[in-house]
Amino acid sequence: MIALLVGGVLGWSGSTKLFGRNTPVQASGTVLERKLGGLPRATAALRAVGAAELLVALALVALPVPLATGALAALAGTGFAAYLGYARATAPDSSCGCTARDKAPIGVRAFARAGFVLAGGAVVLADGLAGAGLPAPAGGPWWEALRDGPGAALGLLAAGAVLAWLLFGDPDRAVRLPLRRLRLRLFGHPLVGGSGAAGDPEAVPVEGSVELLERSLAWQTVTHVVRSGLREHWDDEGWRFLRYTGLHDPGRQGADGAEGAGRPVSVVFAMDAKAGLDSPRPPVIRVGVVDEETGERVDVTAGRERPGALLGEGV
Q: Is the CB of residue 239 less than 8 Å from the CB of residue 295?
């Protein structure tokens, strides 16, 4: 059953990279973008990784050769861990490119994902060694395990699926959002009947605007520039403005040929102060990036691939 579980995870991960529209978003801010010379090449590399993941997943699920498929999965997990280690050492502020939503710098969770694939491949490989007559835990293809002991097999698969969801999914948001919606239905909006933001009783809490912003395509367009949390916010004529600080061209070379620290910039988002997670339509979100030294507007999307859906979001 481990082969089926690891194959399912790699199949999902590979298909989102190879066929997903958000692959450029996944590639942005990764070490691939910096080392390969731009977002188009990084996107192509990420799609190639997705194709490789799909091939390993297909082998794990369809081939009754655990010795070979386990070795492939273990090799894939080792490769992921090596990539993460290299990225962490050379570009510690880069993201791993695992999912489009996970744009945080590489941390323990990313290494745990690689360890999950590596450990799963090692278990399948051990099953193959057992089948070859070598000392290792006995096992075989997942369909044989399901046929011989369906209860235990399904229990193991369910436990593994929960672990995979905790590592590869977004459990925090999946749990937090339903609880927040339930609280609003039971107790109403915390600002209704109060002073509200900037005197508007219908304005949503700033935390809600930030969460909505970080799920938007406008945020994904400039996330490679942002280097801070929310610095300040204000409301004006129904608009809510959220300011972050960041760096533009952090890898640019100076006159002496050395890499510079980049240009400090302010990243300002403007959105409807009444827009929330339960709004029927995604809100229009506008973004501007301003050089903090000169006050001039900076184009941070030049030469970068932008998802077509951004055109409909009012960026």
A: no
- pTM comes to 0.56
Euclidean distance between the first and final Cα of the chain, in Å? 46
- Name the average pLDDT for the chain: 76
Tell me if 232 sits within 8 A of 244, measured CB to CB.
no
CB 96 within 8 A of CB 87: yes
- pLDDT digit string, tens, across residues 102-158: 667 788 888 988 899 999 889 888 877 765 444 444 445 667 767 777 777 787 778
Are the C-beta atoms of 232 and 243 separated by less than 8 Å?
Answer: yes
Cβ neighbours of residue 283 closer than 8 Å, sequence gap 6 or more: 212, 216, 271, 272, 275
Q: Is 147 exposed, middle or buried (0-12, 13-18, 19+ CB in 10 A)?
A: exposed
d(CA 75, CA 32): 20
Q: For residue 64, what pLDDT is reported? A: 76
pLDDT at 36: 87
Residue partners of 6: CB distance under 8 A and separation at least 6: 57, 60, 73, 116, 117, 120, 121, 124
Residue found by looking up tokens 């406008």 in the block = 218
- Buried b / exposed e over 119-135, threshold 16 CB at 10 Å, is ebbbbbbbbbbbbeeee
Task: Please state, as a whole number, how many other Cβ atoms lie within 10 Å of the Cβ of residue 313.
Answer: 18
Q: Tell me the residue type at 258.
A: A
Kindly state the tokens that stand for 255. Answer: 């006159």
Nearest to 12 by CA among 59, 50, 65, 63: 50
**Stated length of the chain:** 315
- Which amino acid does the sequence have at 269? F
Contact 172, 166 (CB under 8 A): no
Q: For residue 197, what are its two tokens?
A: 């933001």
Both tokens of 226, joined, read 């942002």
Beta bridge partners of 234: 241
